[in-house]
Amino acid sequence: MASRSSSTTSLSLATESPTRTLHEIPWEDDATLFGGSKRNSHSEDRLDAKTADILNVPVLLEKQTLNTIEKQPIDGSEDVYPDGGLQAWSVLVGGFLTTFCGFGMIAGYGAFNTYYHKNLLSDYPLSVTAWIGSVSSCVTFAGATIGGTVMDRFGPRKVMMAGTMIMSLGFLLLSFCTELWQFFLCQSLFISSGIALMFVCPMTSANDWFKARRSMASGVVMSGASAGSIVWPLMIANLPQLVGWDWTVRVIALCQLLLLSFATILLRLRPRPAMKVEAPPTKKHMFYWRAFASHPVYLLTSISSFCFSFGYFVFLFFVGTFALQKGWVREAPYVLIACNAASAIGRIGAGFVADRVGRYNVLFFTTFSSAIVLFSWLGANSVVGIFAVAIVYGVMTGGNVALQSVCVVQATKDLEHLGVTGTLIGQQFGFQAIAVLIGPPISGYILGTSGSVARQLSRLPFAIGLNGTVIMIGAGCALWARCLQDRTLKAKI
User: Whole-angstrom Cα distance, residue 72 to residue 88?
Assistant: First the structure.
């Protein structure tokens, strides 16, 4: 009778939910799998078999333990990273061109600032014109938070096409600007929105094709920003005397359109092998804020990037004006160019070294060294001295910039299967957006909003002290993040 009753009960349950399908899901620890509790949707029935209805546990898809769920390719092949080959290298070329046009323009704003202050916006103090570059950087980094999520959903090519059109149109409109508010509208908002959309695409694509040589790949991609920050300032310094400001900006708009169109063709994500068992679809969220709470290394990495970005731009924004005030008129435009050229070396070099000695080890070293070199600006009283500071500062800051995205991927590698890599990188840039919004203007207000340029620059040591200290705090956060992963001195982290 007991057996018959049990059979009747089982039949009744099956009749009530005829569409339910059970999937065999292996796991190592029930408590970990279900967030610390060994009870699940079937615990009342005390099932002895370790099976669960995957439809009843969607939380699995956002747990670190999802990597215990094995999805086998249909053809038996493994999901491997190429780490080379024609397609992988072409993605790096596309990424190089994207950062050349995008972040290279942001990093080269110092040339715009110098030209604005001397010509178009000469009635405004440095602290006011610095806001154009600061807001532009803020919009770029903040918009990258959304751009990363959009890229995760639609892939890089559609996002690149939209960003290319917005950015090219923005530069075309910039050629007609004459008032301060117009420069803010076009350069700080319109152009920066296009850059923000594309910002995460090259880094996510490069990380998707490379693993063992991921730092090197990131360095190659980010070196495009250094190359761009050399070429664009050279155009700003020389073309206006030949064709005027209006046509200079229109030439830049045409170059942006052509180069970014080619980059759009090259950027792609690597193909994945077909899977036997597909995980059920998850609800897509715009952001993944919980990663800051569940991954302290990711949080510390983001704080480190915030501190670095706070102090990074003070040299780029004000070194040109500093050189002019010192009387180095011929050399002034080339100080920033030398810094950006050295940055390209630092980005590629740091990538190669990081793949061998550890990404967080190099991240800490470059951040700490950037603060020390910034402090040394206080002693630069000659042309040779300022060029030496610019070159070393470029190498060290370039290394830091190249490793930010790969450190995010390393800190959240257990979330890679969720397809939120672009979102996580974008969120880190969101942290940096606040820093670049407040950092340069604070430095500008320390220099002052009235009086001669010489009087303003006499207060430069205070700005250098503030920014160098903040970068040093960032170095401490990078070291903390490194120690959370491994406290062994010689560990490759």
Answer: 24
Q: If you write DSSP's letter for every residue of 187-255 in order, what string do you get?
A: IIIIIHHHHHHHHHHHHHHHHHH-STTHHHHHHHHHHHHHHHHHHHHHHHHHHHHHHHHHHHHHHHHHH
Letter string b/e over residues 295-318, b meaning 16 or more CB atoms within 10 A of that residue's CB: bebbbbbbbbbbbbbbbbbbbbbb
pLDDT (0 to 100) of residue 324: 83
Alpha helices in 75-121 (DSSP H): 86-101, 103-107, 109-115
**At a CB cut-off of 8 Å and minimum separation 6, what does 189 contact?**
135, 139
**pTM as predicted:** 0.74
Position of tokens 């959009």? 150
8 Å CB contact between 359 and 215: yes
User: Residues of the chain with pLDDT > 90: what percent?
Assistant: 43
Whole-Å CA distances, 103 to 67, 279, 444: 35, 37, 22
455 vs 312: which has the higher pLDDT: 312
**Mean pLDDT score of the chain, rounded to an integer?**
81
The dihedral over CA atoms of 291, 297, 301, 303, expressed in degrees to the nearest 10, equals: 70
Cβ atoms 298, 347 nearer than 8 A: no
**What are phi and psi for residue 51, nearest 5 degrees?**
-130, 155
Q: What superfamily in CATH does domain 86-269+292-485 come from?
A: MFS general substrate transporter like domains (1.20.1250.20)
- How many residues make up the chain in this entry? 493
What one-character DSSP code corresponds to residue 491? -
How far apart CA 357 and CA 362 sit, in angstroms, is 8
Domain residue ranges of the chain, discontinuous segments joined by +: 86-269+292-485
Provide mean pLDDT across the span 435-448. Answer: 82
The answer to whether 147 and 199 are in contact (CB under 8 A) is: yes
Q: How many helices (H) and strands (E) does the chain have?
A: 18, 2
Burial class of residue 262, CB neighbours in 10 A (0-12, 13-18, 19+): middle
